[in-house]
Amino acid sequence: MVRCSCSFLRKYGNFMDNLRLFTKGGAGGMGYPRLGGEGGKGGDVWIVAKKRVNLKQIKDKYPQKRFVAGDGANSRISALKGEKGLDCEISAPVGIIVTDERGQIIGELNKEDDKILIAQGGLGGNLLSNFLPSKGQKRIIHLDLKLIADIGLVGFPNAGKSSLLSKISHAKPDIADYAFTTIRPQLGKIMYNDLKQVSVADLPGLIEGAHLNKGMGHKFLKHIERTKQLLFVVDITGFQLSSKTKFRSAFETVILLTKELELYKEDLMMKPSLLAVNKMDLPDAKDKFSELVKQLQNPKDFSHLFGKDEIPGKNMEFQHIIPISAQTGEGIEELKNCLRISLDEQSNQEKEKFSEKQLLNLRNSNLLYSDLSSKYANVEITEFH
Ligand SMILES: Nc1nc2c(ncn2[C@@H]2O[C@H](COP(=O)(O)OP(=O)(O)OP(=O)(O)O)[C@@H](O)[C@H]2O)c(=O)[nH]1
Ligand SMILES: [Mg+2]
After folding, report:
1. Which residue from 95, 155, 308, 347 has the least number of CB within 10 angstroms?
2. pTM surpassing 0.85?
3. Domain Obg, which positions (predicted)?
């Protein structure tokens, strides 16, 4: 069952995170054999990052999804060197990875005005080519959008990720008591009293075997590649997808989520992470929470709960573990504070690293300078008369 609320449609309607386009550089112009004239080069196709563009707009504006640059002009008596064909520029959102048909990365658009050459125009006819022009390069490309957010929510279905997002931000995601309520990534913003904003991306739930394309698969994990930190959200009462699948405790869901992240991309494990243990309003939650903390402190003692290939190579080291209830609001302020502390720490560390690097560069250049000055200290300067 796929349901969409009105506000969802207004805000995120037809959210697209990938698009396939046909591109072709312009053909070169004809040379002029009798006078040795050279045809103009065909125009190139470029892709350029623009802030207020989304993939849906590209698709609506260019339903054929064809982008062809202009042909180079033929060489004429009045203009022996033919003019270059017009370039074609495709405006695309920031945060795009461009790949070719074989999945090879052509480039990334990480900030506004980043530009990538996609298809080159053909050369104009000239002496070497017997004055015959060449055709433009044809290329089918895939644009893949990765959301940029400070925090990415990771969890099994039904853990309460969307409930949490709606509690900490103004976002109004769908919330329901069945798995896979969220079918597209959604963004919300936490506003702090000092006006600092932290963006949070809510992603469709993951299940064990996502790497084998089970559930929604790993399809949406690309969006957390660009987030600064991860917030694991688990249901303290555990998770069971259906009566045919195994019941998993909160501890097991943490380990299995970790494994899925590792299988998707080991680098993700390097991101600072926090753990929100949700639904603390339910009966026996406090006892279960103490048990979970114990298990997380000594995960090896509980490896018998898992199959051999379900155990991650490395466990997540959570900066904070916060018990919350997205329903009653318990622990939500604490969670917001922890997220802020963790993000501030990360940005301070980055700043420190940056200034250390600058200091090192400065020292190196000073060393070079003193090296040079001692080398030339004894050189007599002869005046030129
Ligand atoms: N008792 C209790 N129920 C909660 C809490 N948080 C969420 N729920 C309920 O849990 C169910 C799932 O919540 P969602 O926010 O849709 O969960 P989700 O993680 O976004 O689920 P998917 O989108 O399917 O991945 C809903 O029925 C919520 O009302 C909580 O703190 N306590
Ligand atoms: Mg959801």
Report:
1. 308
2. no
3. 13-148
Distance CA 237, CA 250 (A): 6
Q: Is 122 helix (H, G, I), strand (E, B) or coil?
A: coil
Q: Is the CB of 175 under 6 A from ligand 1?
A: yes
* Cβ atoms of residues 41 and 122 within 8 Å: yes
Q: If you average pLDDT over residues 221-249, what whole number do you get?
A: 91
Q: Determine how β-strand 96-100 pairs with β-strand 105-109.
A: antiparallel
The answer to whether the CB of 182 is under 6 A from ligand 1 is yes
Q: What are phi and psi of 186, to 5 degrees?
A: -135, 150
> What does the domain layout of the chain look like in residue ranges?
15-145, 149-344
* Residue minimizing CA distance to atom 13 of ligand 1: 160
Ligand 2 centroid–CA 381 distance in Å is 77
Task: Judge whether 45 and 90 are in contact, CB under 8 Å.
Answer: yes
Q: How far apart are CA 380 and CA 215, in angstroms?
A: 79
- 251, with CB counted inside 10 A (0-12, 13-18, 19+), is buried
Per-residue pLDDT of 345-381, as tens digits, reads: 999 998 898 888 888 888 887 776 666 666 655 555 4
Counting from 1 in the atom list of ligand 1, the atom nearest the Cα of 233 is: 19
CATH superfamily of 15-145: GTP1/OBG domain (2.70.210.12)
CA of 178 to the centre of ligand 2 (A): 9
